[in-house]
Specification:
The complex is a heterodimer of chains A (about 120) and B (about 110). With about 120 residues, chain A is mainly β. Helices cover about 0% and strands about 55% of the residues of chain A. Classes of the chains: A mainly beta (about 120), B mainly beta (about 110).
Chain lengths: ~120, ~110
């Protein structure tokens, strides 16, 4: 079964600083990988996704992520953080369930980002 | 404007009562999902449905039930058998369920049971 680990529960950065959120996954085949963002009390919004091809993926709001198969990682980065980026970020891996035709997303536990002015 | 609607945003119930959470989508998506979110635990899948009149249990289905009588609607009932029902519930939908598709999320319903 697939799994996702986000090692950092809470990260604090200053506005304008660079950001990297870590995500490690476990899955036997090539995974489908996603990063979502959630503002307090709201639903989730997709930032970016990786299926195949170029391992550096560009997303919305200036975010990017790099797929590294050798490290089973899909870390999210942003060169300069804005106060409005404060939120909770979730990494997810998509895969088929056993031998069925159904697939599902498995989410990490989330990383809360605090931005200091 | 296409999207997913969940109502109500806040719901309060007494212990021992069943409660139904609404989820409606107008994205013409085939697949719909229910997740439960607790602090520090990420999202856990309760039930999902690939097509009308068909649904499968997720990782934490005990104490919950669903129906999928219409493509647009996927209501979740939290029964009195659910031992710890207080949580934030999120509904999502996607075109299909191969695991490759992006899921679109509703705004969530916060359920408090006392």
């Amino acid at each position: 079964a697939q799994s996702v680990t986000q090692p950092d529960i809470h990260i604090t950065v200053s506005e304008g600083a660079s950001l990297e959120l870590r995500c490690n996954y476990s899955y036997g085949a090539t995974p489908y990988l996603f990063w979502y963002v959630q503002s307090p009390g709201q639903g989730l919004q997709l930032l970016l996704k990786y299926f195949s091809g170029d391992t550096l993926v560009q997303g919305i709001k200036g975010f990017e992520a790099e797929f590294k198969r050798s490290q089973s990682s899909f870390n999210l980065r942003k060169p300069s953080v804005h106060w409005s980026d404060a939120a909770e970020y979730f990494c997810a891996v998509g895969a088929r369930v056993g031998g069925t035709s159904y697939g599902k997303l498995t989410f990490g536990q989330g990383t809360i980002l605090t931005v200091h002015p | 404007d296409g999207g997913i609607t969940q109502s109500p945003k806040y719901l309060f119930r007494k212990e021992g009562q069943n409660v139904t959470l609404s989820c409606e989508q107008n994205l013409n998506h085939d697949a719909m999902y229910w997740y439960r979110q607790d602090p520090g635990q990420g999202l856990r899948l309760i039930y999902y449905s690939q097509i009308v009149n068909d649904f499968q249990k997720g990782d934490i289905a005990e104490g919950y039930s669903v129906s999928r009588e219409k493509k647009e609607s996927f209501p979740l009932t939290v029964t009195s058998a659910q031992k710890n029902p207080t949580a934030f519930y999120l509904c999502a939908s996607s075109m299909r369920t191969s695991g490759r598709e992006e899921q679109y999320f509703g705004p969530g319903t916060r359920l408090t049971v006392t």
